[in-house]
Amino acid sequence: MEPVIPDEEIVRTFQETGRNDCFAELFARHRRRVFSACRGFFTDSGAAEDATQETFLRAYQKMHTFQGGSFIGWLMRIARNVCVDQWRKRRLEAGTEGSEVAEGSAPVGPDPSSETHLMVERVWQGIKSLPPSQRQCLELRIQGYSYKEIAARAGLSIEAVKSHVQNGRRMLWLKMEGMIARLK
């Protein structure tokens, strides 16, 4: 059995040589995972496929900016940004075309009336209400940054980042627990 080459090594080879077979390997490894993440954001498979393609297009164009760390974390951040961008664009387009949606058309973006969407909104509201240092560290951690990367970005020690993330999670949990209790 041939050993699996780490993503980061393939990226480095692509950055140095520009060999498209390196990018094709990364695409083959992660296409399903990116599609699954996009599918979790959109109710429409076509929109999720579009977001997946756009994610890999942006990754290809920005591959030279990848400077180490978790490649899949970096790729999933791109996917998240693509999904948000496309959802906003579709929402704006739907708003400018009129308030009535054509019959039989697929929803664009998460169903705002779904329980999942409402819970996600509540979680993000809870995160926004955290103290700034906790919020920043927790948001970066959710986006896939390592503690070391967060420390470098925030100008904090790794221990301080771990503390802010842990305290932020604890405070968020308490806020969510209170909201859930009120819903019962």
Q: Tell me which CATH architecture of the largest domain applies here.
A: Orthogonal Bundle
CATH superfamily of the largest domain: RNA polymerase sigma factor, region 2, helix turn helix motif
* Helix proportion: over 70%
| Main sheet specs | none
Number of strands: 0
Classify the fold: give the CATH topology of the largest domain: Rna Polymerase Sigma Factor, Chain: A
Mean pLDDT: 80
CATH class of the largest domain: Mainly Alpha
Approximate strand percentage: under 5%
Describe the global form. Answer: globular
Q: Give the termini separation.
A: 54 Å
Number of domains: 2
Structural class: mainly alpha
Q: What is the number of helices?
A: 8
- Uncertain regions spanning at least 5 consecutive residues: 98-109
SSE pattern: HHHHHHHH
Q: In angstroms, what is the radius of gyration?
A: 19 Å
Description:
The structure is a single chain. The protein has helices at residues 7-17, 20-41, 45-62, 71-96, 115-128, 132-142, 147-154, 158-183. The chain is mostly helical and 184 residues long. It has two domains: 1-98, RNA polymerase sigma factor, region 2, helix turn helix motif (Rna Polymerase Sigma Factor, Chain: A, Orthogonal Bundle); 111-184, Winged helix-like DNA-binding domain superfamily/Winged helix DNA-binding domain (Arc Repressor Mutant, subunit A), CATH 1.10.10. Helix 1 crosses helix 2 (20-41) and helix 7 (147-154) crosses helix 8 (158-183). It is globular, with a radius of gyration of 19 Å. The termini are far apart. The model is unreliable at 98-109 (pLDDT under 50).
